[in-house]
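Q: I'm writing a short explainer about DUF420 domain-containing protein for a general audience and would like to include a description of its predicted shape. Could you first generate the structure from this sequence?
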Amino acid sequence: METLQSPVQEQKANRIINVLSIAIPVAVAVLLGVRQKVDLGSWTTYLPHINAVINSATSLLLIMGLYFIRQKNVAAHRRTMLTAFTLGSLFLVSYVLYHLTNESTPFGGQGWIRPVYYFLLVSHIVLSVVVVWFVLRAVYFAVTNQISKHKQTVKWAYPIWLYVSTTGVIVYLLIKPYYLH
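A: Of course. Here's the predicted structure. Afterward I'll give you a sentence or two in plain language.
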């Protein structure tokens, strides 16, 4: 049974989702543009490796979430997807922390792999900005039990999110040989 949200609640939720969907990518872009790096110690050089593990786990959780919902196991689906959402949030914090404390690593690959890397990187970045809005809406609709709206949103959110988390791992594997640490 669908839960009806009052128009005021729905409007407030939409406003919050829209603000976050703009504020998060803008904040990340601004923080990435900070030239003066903060010294928090050498432990931050491990964050890209941790981020790859987080993205790998997120990809697996997304696939498991799809499996569970196709099996009509709503409880397992909900737990799995909320865990994926939590990991995505942790990734964002870790990613920003890494780039506040370390210079970006240039890609050193040559030949045919170079355009492949940059295609994956650019599509990953662009879609990571886009997916925020979809994921926030999908989670909101699920949590408020607006299942038909959740399903409509997930048609877009799921493949984009899976692409972003998977290409994040691929981009990491391609640039990993060029990390200095």
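A: For your explainer, you could say: The chain has five helices and no strands.
Q: Perfect, that's easy to follow.
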